[in-house]
Design brief:
By secondary structure, the protein is α+β, with helices and mostly antiparallel strands. Helices cover about 25% and strands about 10% of the residues. Among the domains are: about 35 residues, no CATH class; about 70 residues, Herpes Virus-1.
């Protein structure tokens, strides 16, 4: 059993004996518990966890087919006219060897030909304002660069 040395008497609540949780022995031989501990031991109830608000249903025409979330900086791809998030479609086009459209699979689509879809951008803004929807940021890891072998130096050494 700990002694209540250093704790002012005004901060202590007398208790029955040492069997009480958190009890300390006072200088006069009685037992006491700090007021804050006493309140905590008597309450013992934890407040209920806040219930997260359900996410609003995103309209199908405002969804990106790549990330399956609300469009961010909507752009239209010229081959099939479908819209995607700017970052999503640029990443897909640059990562594919043939710069292939993920929907119609047409090849050689340059990220420079993407057209900003102002109508969808406006619709997304209206949706965000009316529902309070906030898109969670997606952190993409950049692929590690492959070491480039310099053949000129290799040939000179031989």
């Amino acid at each position: 059993i700990k002694k209540s040395t250093g704790i002012p008497r005004s901060f202590m609540v007398p208790v029955e004996g040492p069997q009480v949780q958190g009890a300390m022995m006072t200088p006069n031989g009685s037992y006491a518990v700090p007021v804050l501990d006493h309140q905590a031991y008597t309450q013992k109830s934890t407040p209920p966890a806040p219930v997260p608000e359900p996410k609003p249903e995103i309209p199908e025409d405002l969804l990106c087919n790549i990330c399956s979330d609300l469009l961010t900086d909507a752009v239209m791809i010229p081959c099939c006219g479908n819209s995607f998030c700017d970052e999503c479609i640029r990443s897909v086009l640059l990562e594919s060897e043939d710069h292939e459209c993920p929907d119609c699979h047409e090849k050689d689509i340059s990220p420079g030909t993407l057209i900003p879809n102002r109508f969808l951008r406006k619709s997304v803004g209206t949706f965000k304002n009316t529902t309070g929807y906030v898109k969670k940021p997606v952190y993409r890891q950049k692929p590690e660069p492959k070491p480039v072998e310099n053949t000129e130096i290799k040939n000179k050494k031989e």
